Structure formats: structure tokens, C-alpha cells
Amino acid sequence: MDIFGIPLQAFLGQLLLGLVNGSFYAMLSLGLAVIFGLLGIVNFAHGALYMIGAYVAWFGAEKLGIGFWWALVLAPLVVGALGVVIERTLLKRLYKIDPIYGLLLTFGLALIAEGIFRDQFGVSGQQYAVPELLQGATNLGFMVLPNYGGFVVFASLLVCLATWWTIERTRLGSYLRAGTENPSLVQAFGVNVPLMVMLTYGAGAGLAALAGVLAAPVIQITPLMGSNLIIVVFAVVVIGGMGSILGSILTGLALGLVEGLTKVFYPEASSIVVFVIMAIVLVIRPAGLFGKEK
Questions:
Q1: The CATH number of the domain where 22 resides is what?
Q2: SS3 of the chain
Q3: Could you read off the pLDDT of 207-229 as tens digits, one per residue?
Q4: Domain that holds residue 272
Q5: What is the pTM of this model?
């Protein structure tokens, strides 16, 4: 069976690849949306944290014998701790001034991290093996599903929905949202707002690292992997609506599929289709698809 002259299995395989890319977009844009929505910081260092997470997994496997499953836990903790240090030593000094300073600081941090890793590891890239349990593929009849690709999509959806539920449906999430709107009032009720802010940034950094570990077996690990992706992820956040948690998840997945379809029907436009959609959305709805109009 063909779809527009393309074999069904090839068509569905490209859709799956788009969904895997969309899963990475969703996780990274989710971390950006959490940090911006709750702290008001445009975190340009997010791509560098994603890259560092992948390198932590690779270093753990090559030097310490730490497997993929442990890396899924350890890399977010390590990079989350790094995020806490960044927030406590640098970002906390910028909360009461123009947000452009936070953007410039995080952009500078991204360049520093990229330079350090390029100096240490070069730009040729490192390989990270797919875990043995997820190697191979499953024949579903209508398509052959790579086991690792299916795992990435499932794990990303699980993490994204758990994060959304925590922020939107729990008492902790209500404290976080209230703390960003009126920190003095929330602190008067005995909530440690600075600690909450610190942990929020650390959690956003940890989400970026988790995406990096999941991406490591799919792409080559290079110091440029974060900077190559972060502009697309920012476009995803803008389309979904700055600070919208659910918007980032849905838009990331949808744009991954759109990008995958574009590679099938018009490959030359696949690298710009996200930005074309962003331009159209900004003209029609400047706050984004799920953002709140002021």
C-alpha cells in the first residue's frame, strides 16, 4: 500500500522519526516553559544543559561503567545540581532587573560550556550504544517499530505529563504558581520561596539532561548538539505560548510530526518549516496557541 506514491512502511517510519524528534522538542521546551513560566527567565543555557546531560551519560559509560538505566537517574541529578549552583550564584542577582540580562547571562554560559567541551572532546562526536534491552525492532504488521524509538516516545510522554500534573494539579504546583505571582504573600505563609525557586530551576535543568540522555543513543554526542537544537526549541515554546506547560508538550510533539511529514513530501523545507509556522502563529496570535493574551 502506498500513500502519495510512498510505501506505507516508509511513510510510517518517517512519522515515527518525527515523533521521536517531537519528543525531544517537547521535553526541552517543557523545561524552558517551566523556567520561564515560574521564574521569568529566558534560559538560553538550556541547550548546553541538554548537551552536558548526554556527556554525563557517555562519561559514565566509558569511564565508570555506568549503564543507560543508571544514567537516566544520575545525569538529571548531576545537571540539576549544576543548575542549582547557577541559580544560587548568578541568576538570583538578576530577578529584579530587566529579563534581557538573564537571557544574556544564560547565553554566555551556553557559549562557555560549549567552548569547554569543544576543547576537551573536539567536535567529531562520541557514540553511545542503545541499551541491550531496547535493541532491535518489533514487527507490528503494518510497520517495523524500532524498540528504542518507541521507548523514547513513551518515556517522554510520561515525563511531560507527570511534570504538567505536578505543576497544574498538586499543592506543590499551586505554591510554585503563587510564589511567582506574589512571593511576599506566599513567604508570609511559611513557604521558603527562594528554596522553591532554586529547586524549580534545578528541575528544569534536570529535564534538559534527561532529554540529553534519551537522545544520546540516537544522535552523535557533540558539544554543538545543544546549540543546533535550542533555536528550534525556542520556536516551539513561542508557538505553544511562552510559559504554557501544556502548550509546550503538545506543540513539541505536533511540530515533530509536521517536520517528519515535510521530510517526506518536501525535504528542502524541513529545516525551516517550524520557523514558517512560528511566523504565521505570531501574526495571527502573538501570545502563541496556548498562551494568555494580555
A1: 1.10.3470
A2: CEECCEEHHHHHHHHHHHHHHHHHHHHHHHHHHHHHHHHCCCCCCHHHHHHHHHHHHHHHHHHCCCCHHHHHHHHHHHHHHHHHHHHHHCHHHHCCCCHHHHHHHHHHHHHHHHHHHHHHHCCCCECCCCCHHHCCEEECCCCEEEHHHHHHHHHHHHHHHHHHHHHHHCHHHHHHHHHHHCHHHHHHCCCCHHHHHHHHHHHHHHHHHHHHHHHCCCCCECCCHHHHHHHHHHHHHHHHCCCCHHHHHHHHHHHHHHHHHHHHHCHHHCCCHHHHHHHHHHHHCCCCCCCCCC
A3: 999 999 999 999 999 999 998 88
A4: 2-284
A5: 0.93
